[in-house]
Design goal:
Elements: E1 8-10, E2 13-15, E3 18-19, E4 25-26, E5 38-44, H1 55-60, H2 70-75, E6 84-86, E7 92-94, E8 101-102, E9 109-110, E10 113-114, E11 120-126, H3 135-151, E12 160-162, H4 163-166, H5 180-199
Parallel strand pairs: 3-7, 5-11, 5-12, 6-11
Antiparallel strand pairs: 1-2, 4-8, 6-7, 9-10
Helix pairs in contact: 3-5
Domain N-acetylmuramoyl-L-alanine amidase: 22-175
Protein name: 1,6-anhydro-N-acetylmuramyl-L-alanine amidase AmpD
Keywords: Cell wall biogenesis/degradation, Cytoplasm, Hydrolase, Metal-binding, Zinc
Length: 200
């Protein structure tokens, strides 16, 4: 398992995440409205409810093989992306530079502010609304979230949310299977441990 101290962010790239560039991105607003102040958690599985196979990577690169599954023909024309993807084994893939605008949130609003793509980072967990996420995914998500919090000062724990919360009625992920308490408790434990070490 990769320790949190092994995750570093330099010029918008998360190391040692595997780089798998998506063409589906654009610049963030330059008037301050694009400052990263939100982290959005999603889920995805392709085909739905099935894991592995590299189809998520292909989807975000507009290379989904439509002949492989009937569902793929329904979504192949969509141009979407996420900054990061954490698979069931806890491995991280990066599709879009964190400093760029990924196309993950769609029509969305957080704290009265629309267009969440402008100012958020999107993380996709391989999963469904009802399948329990793996221990490895939670460990990696906590590690990566901590790295993001350190790299982007305007992002803090209170601004970590789900796709279902910024697009209610339209989206349901990461769903009832996601343990928000586990995420926030893990982050709090890390922060308390770091604070205690600084006091020694």
């Amino acid at each position: 398992m990769i320790r949190v101290t092994d995750f570093t962010i330099t010029d918008g790239r998360l190391a040692p995440a595997r780089w798998c560039p998506s063409p589906n991105f654009g610049p963030r607003p330059t008037d301050g409205a694009g400052d990263i102040t939100l982290l959005v958690i999603h889920n995805i599985s392709l085909p739905p409810g099935q894991y592995g196979g590299g189809y998520v990577e292909a989807f975000f690169q507009n290379r989904l093989p439509v002949a492989d599954h009937p569902y793929f023909a329904e979504i192949a024309a969509l141009q979407v992306s996420s900054h990061l993807f954490i698979n069931r084994q806890g491995e991280v893939v990066q599709f879009v530079n964190l400093n760029d605008r990924a196309w993950h949130a769609g029509a969305s609003c957080h704290s009265g502010r629309d267009n969440c793509n402008d100012y958020s980072v999107g993380i996709e967990l391989e999963g469904t609304d009802t399948d329990a996420y793996t221990d490895a995914q939670y460990r990696t998500l906590i590690d990566v979230s901590e790295a993001l919090l350190a790299a982007y000062p305007d992002l803090h724990r209170g601004r970590i949310t789900g796709h279902e919360h910024i697009a209610p009625g339209r989206k349901t992920d990461p769903g009832i299977a996601f343990n928000w308490h586990r995420l926030f408790q893990g982050l709090a434990h890390r922060m308390n441990s770091a604070s205690a070490q600084e006091d020694v």
